[in-house]
Write a structure and sequence with these properties.
globular
């Protein structure tokens, strides 16, 4: 019966949305010593499209995991992590206090965003390199990724406004 199929489809989208939000919540509190392969398996459960095995850039998975980890450190206010990872030359050229203050300013902007806008940022961060899961020239991956995002997020119950915002963020590789 068509009604039952529609209800089942809605329930699946709702479950997928809950799984996605659970993933974002987990990433927000990821500890510094988190084993990233565990995180990767959770990410792939929620977003199976993020399979970089055939990527023209084989190190892409490690890059993407690094981005997730840095966003987690940022949201938690672990600004020393960022300073600690700078090269010696960058540290010598920079002012630690100013560097940390700039990160604090950025975090205040993030915190001023609505929960829906924060989710959009996290989704864009999670999907920013999805174009690399297909054979693509490096400079074309944002546009290819943007064409993939609506299909990926169609498995969720997210509002169209969120899908469009995330698509735009991926397209502009922000």
């Amino acid at each position: 019966d068509r009604f039952a199929k529609r209800v089942m489809a809605w329930e699946e989208r709702r479950r997928n949305t809950q799984a996605m939000r659970g993933l974002i919540d987990r990433l927000k509190v990821m500890p510094r010593d988190q084993h990233l392969e565990e995180v990767w398996s959770h990410i792939q459960q929620v977003f199976p499209e993020l399979d970089y095995a055939d990527s023209p850039r084989p190190v892409k998975k490690q890059h993407v995991l690094g981005v997730y980890f840095m966003m987690s450190r940022f949201v938690q206010g672990d600004f020393d992590y960022f300073w600690d990872t700078l090269s010696a030359a960058d540290k010598a050229a920079g002012d630690r206090q100013q560097y940390i203050e700039n990160l604090r300013r950025l975090r205040r902007i993030y915190e001023a965003a609505s929960p829906a806008e924060q989710d959009q940022m996290w989704l864009a961060m999670l999907l920013h390199d999805v174009g690399y899961t297909k054979p693509v020239a490096a400079f074309d991956h944002p546009e290819l990724g943007a064409t993939m995002v609506p299909g990926i997020l169609a498995r969720t119950a997210l509002p169209q406004e969120t899908v469009e915002a995330v698509t735009d963020l991926v397209r502009h590789h922000i």
